[in-house]
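hey can u check if this looks right to u? its 371 residues, i copy pasted from the old doc so theres a chance i mangled smth
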Amino acid sequence: MKWFGRKSAGRADARPVLARGWATAEAVRPWTYEEGVRAGYVANPIVQRAVRLIAEGVGAVPLTGAVPEVLALIGTRTAGQALLETVAMQILLHGNGFVRVMTPPVAVGETDLFALRPERVTVERDARGWPVAYLYRAGESAQRIAAEDAAGRPALIHVRSAHPLDDHYGLGCLGAAAGAVAIHNAATRWNQALLDNAARPSGVLTFDRNGEGDTLAPEQFDRLREELDAQFSGTPNAGRPLLLEGGLRWQAMSLTPADMDFVGLKSSAAREIALAFGVPPMLLGLPGDAAYANYKEANRALWRQAILPLAGSILGGLNEALVRWWPEGAVRVDLDHVPALADEREALWAQVTAADFLSRAEKRKLLGVER
């Protein structure tokens, strides 16, 4: 039985035709995904910290469900990979997470879930634009993975973020942060260059030969430049005095404090990066944020606005596929055991306990306590 066709059987016009001409997730970025990850995640501490805060939080969320084996399946590491953390990172950066069902799950202990690198997966569509298979490319090898097996159960689980211009691919946060990442990286390189040159342009050499032509011969110019680079440039030679020959005059130069103020530029770019990923700037060590009263409020905002919505989206995608094998195996976040929400839970318990008009059974029901 084909799952993607069973709901529309006998209703050919009921299912809309999905657009196939929209740009993919990679095409809308100003750089390729690999370039973006190298510049934005590998080389940028703000992006890396923001992504790790959210991804590690998703990987550490307490889970609950009726089938303990399914909980163990989602929480088990496969080839050293933490499933929820890896998928969360891929969705944040790429917008898509592809989870491969490694073996036919006749039983829970006989299968594994493994997240594939999203930039290697391409969605294949039918004539109406609905996905029928996934093509996984690694180097020169390619593997076609059918969207469903013979029984209509998915062989690959696609979890994606919302994309307003694409029916098949999600939109990651890295593209929106690309400009801020470029500014932050450029400011870092600029500050490093200033430090390598004693935080100022060393000065200007002027050549004066009493009106006989203020121009050095090419050989003299090249020799002088090589000597300056070798003996007077860079951090090891900072502050070293110059010994000049006749006809050369040294004029010291310096930058104004306003010209050297790249700290504010980096801070502004870092806050834009934090905004793109939904992380409170305070948690990234950025000063000057007055939107949160303290660190605890910022941490609660991170969980409420970033970690829990992303974890719910990932678990929803996994549940849609796993319930085909285990109808009672749906997994959800156990909000009662999230440490960041302990104060909210305590306040709820106090309010319900003080409600004298409620019976004991009604109070237990409101608090989600089993009888």
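The longest strand covers residues 131-138.
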